[in-house]
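I'd like us to work through together how a protein chain folds, taking it slowly. To get us started, please write out a protein record for me. Go ahead whenever you are ready, and we will take it from there:
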Amino acid sequence: MKELTSEQIQENWQKLRGIIDDTFEGERLEKLNVMYDYFEDRMVIAPASGKEHYHNAMVGGYVEHILNIVNFSTQIKKMWEDNGAIIDFTDEELIFAALVTLSNFFKKQEFWLKEFRPEFPAFLV
């Protein structure tokens, strides 16, 4: 199974936060930063899956997974643009959609939902 070093885990976290800071502004940026600050300790080390035979099921795998989604999404958008497709969404909307994987992660990780359910919706309002 793939393993990330502590340096790679920290680099991935900094990349993710950099993408957020570079992509968003105003209230959306503020709320994303509040949420990512709050969950940082858990999110940095979280696996993308609790099943070891799934991709990114390792310490730091969740953040690496999100970075992959952002990267691949922007590559696919560019490919479509290069081939004449009409793109009717912004890069901000695309990257926000990629980050929404967070909500799916929390739905699947029941132990996190039980611990944070009362506070989690406040981040999304």
In short: Residues 6-124 form one domain. Confidence is low (pLDDT under 50) at residues 116-125. The helical segments are 6-23, 26-45, 61-82, 91-99, 101-108, 110-116, 120-124.
